[in-house]
Amino acid sequence: MEKNVYLFVCPEIADWEPALAVAMISDRYTEIPKTHSYPVITFGLTREPVKTFGGLTILPDVAVDDIDLEKTAMIILPGSSLYEKKDPARLVPPIESCIRNDIPVAAICGATLFLAKHGFLDSVRHTSAGPAWLKKHASLYRGEGRYVHALSVADRGIITANPPGFVEFAYNIIKTLDVLKPEFLEFWLGAVKRGNLNTDSF
User: Fold this and answer.
1) Which string of DSSP letters, residue by residue, matches 114-154?
2) pLDDT (tens digit, 9 = 90+) per residue, 62-95?
3) For the chain, what are the domain ranges?
4) Which residues does 89 contact at the CB level (< 8 Å), separation at least 6?
5) What is the Cβ-side half-sphere exposure of residue 31, based on CA atoms within 13 angstroms?
6) Cβ distance 15 to 52 under 8 Å?
7) How far apart are CA 200 and CA 202, in angstroms?
8) Whether the predicted model's global pTM rises above the 0.85 cut
9) CB of 100 within 8 A of CB of 123?
């Protein structure tokens, strides 16, 4: 069965944070050899258009209630100022279902706050913008002892990332979804981090 990756889009989404991951896992990008690739489907709280942080307009493919969990390979939650202003509680049921059914969930920046508010980080190693920041905005957060000061952390099906860690976030998503062969993934990470692609070295 073909499975989809669902990308949450909401007002003031940080459009750069999921971009690298989405480009690499998408079945529309065929310029490099892949082990697996996935249709990427955008979803919103509704199907109303949203404006990104960079001013782009995105029309969600589906609303949150229309996610087909049986065909879901992963849900990606990018950062947004939304999480500090208003808790998108309608995300809780699909995220709970993903975790219960071993479907990976990836969150970066402000989206980690959503996971913290609802207890999803209390029992896994994770990162964010700092444990004190999580505690300040999520009073029920109890995961301080599992906080890791790193750009991105993957543990037991939950991927989290610090705000500037979008490259490592992409790396963990690609690795979890088995998109690239391990040796090519390491080559890719090195090329992106160095800002220099030398195909002769691979």
Assistant:
1) HHHHTTTTTTS-B-SS-HHHHHHH-TT---GGGB--SSEEE
2) 999 999 999 999 999 999 999 999 899 999 999 9
3) 4-201
4) none
5) 3
6) yes
7) 6
8) yes
9) no
